[in-house]
Amino acid sequence: SAQFLHTPSPALPPTQIQHTPTSPSPPILKHCCKLSRRELAICSNSSLLLLLGSQTLDPCHLSKARAEENGATTDKNDGQEENSKGTDSCIDTTPKKRAFLDISINGEPTGRIVIGLYSDNAPVGTARFSNLVSGAAGISYRRKEFIKIMPSYVQHGGVRSYGVDAELATKTGSNLAVDSLMAEWEKSYQDCPGTKNLVGSVSIIVRDPSKPPPKVKLVARKGKLEIDEEEVGKDPNGTEFVIATKDSPELDASALVVGKVLEGMEVVEKIGQVKTVQDNTSSPYFRVAKLIGDKRAVVAERGFNRPYAKVVVMNCGLLE
Asked: How many angstroms separate the CA atoms of 130 and 260, rounded?
């Protein structure tokens, strides 16, 4: 049999473990404080005083802040009450008279609008509107058209201050001047805060806030050059009126509220749905022309928002 010789495997050298020297840990410092009984008593009393002071001051500041907040709230409520009282005193919500307007669109009867008039709130404006509705002024709104339809109101053209209308008004002694209406509008505008032309309000137009200033030009008189002012556009004659289909604060600067719609608001809404001529006032060319007082811009502006259909007051008057 074969004999296997086992040679002894070489012995591995012993593993050398290297020990990394470590630096000695720093010595632990121990602080020792020694206080006398007197110092401990003083520290305790000081801490107690600070604690009591913080607990005492916080409620004081809190109560003061609450008092200031309550005072501000009271002042705010008082201001709101004063504003509401002022608004209520300016707007007489009890109509003293009633007027009616029978409307037709393109010859088709549309319905009747019944208007309550505030004779106490605007006596001059109410008298003007009543005389024009009833015909007591020698002329009336009968067979006169609505000339402008805006997103928030519709505007009636009123009567003319020249021609046949002016002659008829002169025969009855009626005055179409707007001086007294302007004075009444100024008083209402200054004394009554907030929006006055609310939805359903009926107002007389007394001024045109968009009217440009007079145009200055040189005129030769008696061999001398003199500066003259030429009026651009015409002032309203105090017979045009508007009916607000929405709250219209933009009308407060030009219209005097004389009443509100009591019945027939659906008729006013039908008028507001009539198609109109496109408004081109946003054009830069139109703005420049209006700014320099170009008469063509004034004439063109009269056609903006004019209804394509013929919206007419067929009949009008006062109700008992």
From this structure: 13
